[in-house]
């Protein structure tokens, strides 16, 4: 099986920064796209950013210029650097990964447990 573990969430003041990390572990053969989603109270889950194994990135309009997604393929880890945070960024952030395992080479999407990000004075 594959497990994704997120870290780095917490409470930050408006204008501040946080860096989220998500490490994948298990019987992994390879990982295709990795991404970050978020879900705010009363809202649907939305894509924040994703990144391919080759480094191509995609961002939601609301975070362009403020957030940066990156990955370390050797560590099976994806990061989200969040700058200029505002209260509207408050949400539970989830990472995802498209994974080929050693026993199943077809792509399967896995999700982390989520990490809370709260932006407040």
Topology:
Layout lengths: L1 E6 L2 E3 L5 E9 L1 E12 L6 E6 L5 E3 L7 E6 L4 E6 L8 E11 L6 E4 L3 E5 L2
Parallel strand pairs: 2-11
Antiparallel strand pairs: 1-3, 3-8, 4-5, 4-9, 5-6, 7-8, 9-10, 9-11
Structure characterization notes:
- There is one protein chain.
- With 121 residues, the chain is mainly β.
- It is built from no helices and eleven strands.
- Strands 2, 4, 5, 6, 9, 10 and 11 form a seven-stranded mixed sheet that branches. A four-stranded antiparallel sheet has the order 1-3-8-7, with no helix packed on it.
- The chain is elongated, with a radius of gyration of 14 Å.
- The model has no long low-confidence stretch (mean pLDDT 96).
How would you concisely characterize the structure shown here?
By secondary structure, this protein is mainly β. The protein has no helices and eleven strands.
Q: Assess the beta-strand content as a share of residues.
A: over 45%
Name the shape in a single word.
elongated
* Number of helices, counting only DSSP H or I runs of 4 residues or more: 0
Distance between the amino and carboxyl termini: 40 Å
**Secondary structure: helix percent:** under 10%
Radius of gyration, in Å, reads: 14 Å
The structural class is mainly beta
Low-confidence stretches: none
User: Main sheet?
Assistant: 7 strands, mixed
Average pLDDT, to the nearest integer?
96
- The ordered string of helix (H) and strand (E) elements is EEEEEEEEEEE
| Total DSSP E strands | 11
